[in-house]
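On clarity, I found the account of how folds are encoded harder to follow than it need be. Since the whole study asks how a given chain folds, the encoding of that fold should be made plain. The format is easy to grasp once an entry is in front of the reader. For illustration, here is how one protein appears when written out as sequence plus structure tokens.
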Amino acid sequence: MSFRSRLTLFFVLIVIVPMVSLTVVLFSLIADNENGKQDARVAARQSAAINLYKADQDEAAAALVGVSGDIPFATALRENDPAAARRRAQRLLTKLDLKRIVVTRGGRAFVDVGSSTATFPASGGLQDTDGTPIGRLQVSTTGPRAYAQLVKSVTGLDVILTRAGRSLASTLTPGTAMPSLPVKPSTVTVAGQQYRSAAFPVAGFDGAPVKVAVLDSTARTSANVRESRIVAVGILLGFFTLAFLFALLVSRSLQRQIGGFLEAAKRIGSGDFSERVPTVGKDEFAELGDEFNHMSTQLADKIQQVQEEQDRLALAIRRIGETFASNLDRDALLEIVLRTAVDGAGATGGRATMRVKPDGQLHQVAQAGSLDELTATLRQVEAMVLEAGAPRETSVGSVMALAHPLRAAQQAEEDGPPRITGIVSVARAGVPFSPSERELFHYLAGQASVSIENVGLHETVERQAVTDELTGLSNRRRFQEVLAGEVERSRRFGQPLGLVMLDIDNFKQVNDTYGHPAGDLVLKEVARILRESSREIDEPARYGGEELAVVLPGTDLEGAFQLAERVRIGIAALRLPIRTADDEPLQVTASFGVATHPNSSHDVRSLVAGADAALYDAKHAGKNCTVRAAEVPSS
């Protein structure tokens, strides 16, 4: 490929291709920006519509108080006289400027006066003087058409109100077919015209949902997109023209200079080092000519520079090794150590092995390079390290290997020397490792050992931060984090979540009678029963004082109750090595409260409150029992 062709290709790659890509991206961004503005506008207007709805709700609530407090109306309802009740309701409808009044009994309408299209009712229960329920009252002060017109006058957008798929009111042209109106912002087509729609559902009479949607025409947005794209295209075309002219001038200048260098390079290639490359000016081409002219005299200097670069590389590797001690990702750390060790020692390949359990077998966790011809030698040198407990090197045939042990964190002196938790090993074929390569390898492996110790210490600190020191259970902070996460998971996937809370009966009496060490023993034993009765996915915790709790993912009310009973029976069966006044082993009992989400609660706070209330009931029911939380109505 000629130099001219390469310049042309270069121009295409750095100018034309990026400009085409930029045009596509810019067009997309322009459309997204205008659509985002429209969505923001629709969202703001939707908020205004919601505020108007809330204002109508407040007005209906005030009217509800007036209707429910009307003595003649209440008397007719109490005497079970529907005719009198309807007549009085009709008068109240006119007197209070209401749209509709409905009284239901037993799921049926006892009184229903006013417009059937009235919306946004306020609801309340009706009771006799002795507290006996006599029906449910719903009152509306708003008609759908008036609300739609008000929203349009405030927001400037069209409005549609539907109930059960049928239109209640619309500011669009009468007779227009109503499209499906999803709650999320979306684009809908009405009478051949596109709108951006946002809807929200509200409760209507008898619980029938009413959907309110605001619609903004996309015509203005489309026009803005077209105008912005035209401006962008004009700017891009101007930039392309300037880039093309500049590239043409640069191409011709480069061709002249490259031609001169090519002739000089041919003479130097033939062995004529006395030939000088012509240099004109002070630009990069002039500097290149000077480099040609000094090439022969600089070879020795270049060799020295390469040696200095190697020294600097070794120093940089040592500095990298010093940073390993602060790394808390064990697997990533071992991979970095291994690759650095392979490069620094000039090995063909290597691997890092670790124990999953303290007394388990070594398993490979990282690999660098190819191990096809090195595996046997690596196994042999690793076996030598395990036997000697110290760094070792060996060779099998033409393959040489180095290995360094990774040790556990500091142990007590009576536990003996720190055990080996892993090994880093490297190997290569043909050339033995030099002393400097062995030194660098063992240095890096030693730094990795220190870093792994820091990882273990960090994990221990993290575990202690969420564990109660006395019982070994999760502390209250961990309990709250897990409970919040499981409630969100239960809400998202529709699975039940159980919560059991227990309180040791007469615990203060144990402390007062036998002392706090005895109380601590009681807490430890009760925590042990709770932990042994829980599944791996459960989260037993010390909630506070003598109160414990356990979070039960995927467990309904009956399952949580059964677990609580097992724990309660297990606690009652405890015989603690503390003698009572009757010279009998100390026995304790506990009371339990059980709640579930979503049957007993709507959120974290109500779930804990439900279980706590059930625990309170268990205490007042005589203790040593389990009480289920009451179900809450679905929202």
